[in-house]
Amino acid sequence: MPGEFALIERIRARAGRRDDVVLGIGDDAALLAPPPGHELAVSCDTLVAGVHFPDDTAPADIGHKALAVNLSDLAAMAAAPAWGTLALTLPDANQAWLDDFLDGFLALADEHGLALVGGDTTRGPMAITVNVFGLVPAGQALRRDGARPGEDIWVTGTIGDAAGGLAQWRARGPASAKLRHRLDRPTPRVQAGLALRGLASAGIDLSDGLAADLGHVLAASGVGARIELGRLPASRTLADHFDEPRRWALQAGGGDDYELCFTAPASRAFEIEQAMAALDLPATVVGRVVAGAGLRFDTPEGEAWTPPADGYQHFSGGHA
Amino acid sequence: MPGEFALIERIRARAGRRDDVVLGIGDDAALLAPPPGHELAVSCDTLVAGVHFPDDTAPADIGHKALAVNLSDLAAMAAAPAWGTLALTLPDANQAWLDDFLDGFLALADEHGLALVGGDTTRGPMAITVNVFGLVPAGQALRRDGARPGEDIWVTGTIGDAAGGLAQWRARGPASAKLRHRLDRPTPRVQAGLALRGLASAGIDLSDGLAADLGHVLAASGVGARIELGRLPASRTLADHFDEPRRWALQAGGGDDYELCFTAPASRAFEIEQAMAALDLPATVVGRVVAGAGLRFDTPEGEAWTPPADGYQHFSGGHA
User: How far apart are the first and last CA of chain B?
Assistant: First the structure.
């Protein structure tokens, strides 16, 4: 790419530093020094324009989101962010776009102490692949396969906001800036994930929506669940813009919130509430793990409810 | 992506295994257990159709090359391949294409004991980003900044073949299958890189061509070099298809060979030859590190020679 080395130099000049980065951007590979006794958590996500974010998304928001969705995966594993790589495919060597993108990407990296240690820039249709590497003391990662019948099911924060913002954008009608902000600037719940080490039994981040993501936990753990729709935490803004059946659909079926969903024995509830209160992040019990298979949603009247299958097409691609 | 989970399942079913993979594809992040006393080498490369390989490249060759260029970076660091992630953006969920791609990718992964531990599949214009993670005992990595005046400059194998294959493809005239094979199926010199631990003082892989890549070593080390064109190792096939000035241009300016270029004190020459002979891989001294800056090529008659600036446009993007 013409100007490629200039782009790389721009990235290198702004990449964060850590003592455990033996060699950063600029050789054939980065050299990193993982601390003894830790496991390395690795997550990889690609963002494509028009698939993972609306075409009118600001470059700084794209940069933020490209890292946020990956940090959210580390949060869901209770891993502390350490390093990352950034592979940028861009139609042309647009330095202004790159600078704005890096503003969003690196501000979030700095906030979480993540050092950008490598990457690649190529010319082509825009695609952004980020790999992040986190550290977790051996055996303490939060996996999907630890949920047991009788445990509580929790979610952090409020859910449905990002889906509401996307639904409004798609409808081209009145739109809430607050909802759109949740879509464009998701907050990865990194500190919450770290606080849940030793408390939660299983966890996942809500990228594809509660029904889909909790479904992965249930399948991995070999259990089922019942969720009470009346308990799903909704922001005031979401409640103002969407009435009840529509709101449930956004909360249960919509993705992109990047809150954490986790399970824990009821005996841990007080400690969890204390830990989340210390982070100023509400967490809510929304249901219960049950024996058997399947995920059932109950209305406040106790009736079974099913998310509309075609009610919402999320922007977050699934990932391995 | 429609069928995305089916694609991921196809990848997961075929990913290799290693004892140090605590948790592979299928959770929010992979969990890996780096051995104590080692540094982690991380490399990231993106391949885009029409930029990094000809449009008519077979899917299995693309899969091979996507991993090979990354393994080559680990080789250049003297790191042993361990794990990798694969981010695939594809225009549609084409299972036949994916199966062929994985044939090439995973055969090479298995050959080098690399386990695929994560990734992402998204819909969009084709782009492939691979991250590889290698292990090297702390302090033993081969970096770019260790070359010292008076040392020999070596290259492994033969160089110029891939550039010759690309030049023939571009000219749409008679083409050698052997040269094209070197372009499509580069062999990462992983074992050579490992054998050079403690022997070489600096190293790089030849992706962008000898002039450009050796230039990076010289800049990082703060030295210059003189290369004798008459010593550049050429395959019989290259010599049959390209006469001398054209061949030099391919060998000095052309990329995509993925041989190693490294420096070493003359006192190590015998050990290096022994080590390379044990791998059945020729290595050749092509010049010498000198004090000062700049890279000079000498013809067999001792005249200074400059690679034609526009003689060759390589397919390998640079990378950070």
Answer: 30
- Judge whether A119 is annotated as a binding position: yes
**Per-residue pLDDT tens digits for B82-115:** 999 999 988 876 788 899 999 999 999 999 999 9
Interchain CB contact of A87 with B (< 8 Å): yes
Cα–Cα dist A43/A70, whole Å: 6
Kindly report the CATH class assigned to A151-302.
alpha beta
State yes or no: pLDDT of A236 exceeds 60: yes
pTM for the full predicted model: 0.91
Other Cβ atoms closer than 10 A to B258: 27
CATH fold, domain B4-137, is: 60s Ribosomal Protein L30; Chain: A; (3.30.1330)
Residue spans per domain, chain A: 4-137, 151-302
- Cβ distance B220 to A30 less than 8 Å, yes or no, reads no
Task: Report the C-alpha gap between A251 and A305 in whole angstroms.
Answer: 13
Q: Tell me how far apart the alpha carbons of residues B294 and B215 are, in angstroms, rounded to a whole number.
A: 8
Listed by number, the residues of chain B in 194-213 with a beta carbon closer than 8 Å to a beta carbon of chain A are 203-205
**Spatial separation of the C-alpha atoms in residues B288 and B200, rounded to whole Å:** 13
What is the C-alpha to C-alpha distance for residues B199 and B201, in angstroms, rounded to an integer?
7
Q: What is the DSSP string of A79-147?
A: -EEEEEEEEEEESS--HHHHHHHHHHHHHHHHHTTPEEEEEEEEESS-EEEEEEEEEEETT----SS--
Residue-level pLDDT at B4: 66
Hey, are the CB atoms on A26 and B131 less than 8 Å from each other?
no
- Backbone phi and psi for residue A64, each to the nearest 5 degrees, phi listed first: -60, -50
Min Cα distance B231 → chain A (Å) is: 25
Residue A312 CA to residue A254 CA, distance in Å, equals: 6
Q: How far is A300 from chain B (nearest CA, A)?
A: 32
- DSSP output for B167-230: HHHHHTS---HHHHHHHHS----HHHHHHTTTT-SEEEE-SS-HHHHHHHHHHHHT-EEEEEGG
Q: At B132, is the secondary structure helix, strand, or coil?
A: strand
B181: helix, strand or coil: helix
The residue to which tokens 């992965």 are assigned: A216
ipTM: 0.90
Across the interface, whether the CB atoms of A32 and B46 are under 8 A apart is answered no
Q: d(Cα B21, Cα B27) in Å, to the nearest integer?
A: 13
Residue A308 banded pLDDT, cuts 50, 70, 90: confident
Residue A99: its H or E element = helix A95-111
**B274/A contact by beta carbon, under 8 A:** no
Please provide the size of chain A in residues.
Answer: 320
The encoded tokens of residue A23 equal 């060699």
Same fold, A4-137 and A151-302: no
In DSSP notation, A147-206 reads: --TT-EEEEES--SHHHHHHHHHHHTS---HHHHHHHHS----HHHHHHTTTT-SEEEE-
Q: How confident is the model over A31-46, as a mean pLDDT?
A: 96
Beta pairing partners, A205: A260
Q: Do B12 and A119 touch (CB under 8 A)?
A: no
Nearest by CB to residue A28, choosing from B22, B76, B129, is B76
In this structure, how many other beta carbons lie within 10 angstroms of the beta carbon of residue B313?
12
- Of the candidates A8, A33, A73, the beta carbon closest to that of B318 is on A8
The CA distance from A31 to A21, in Å, is 6
CA pair distance B124, A166, nearest whole angstrom: 20
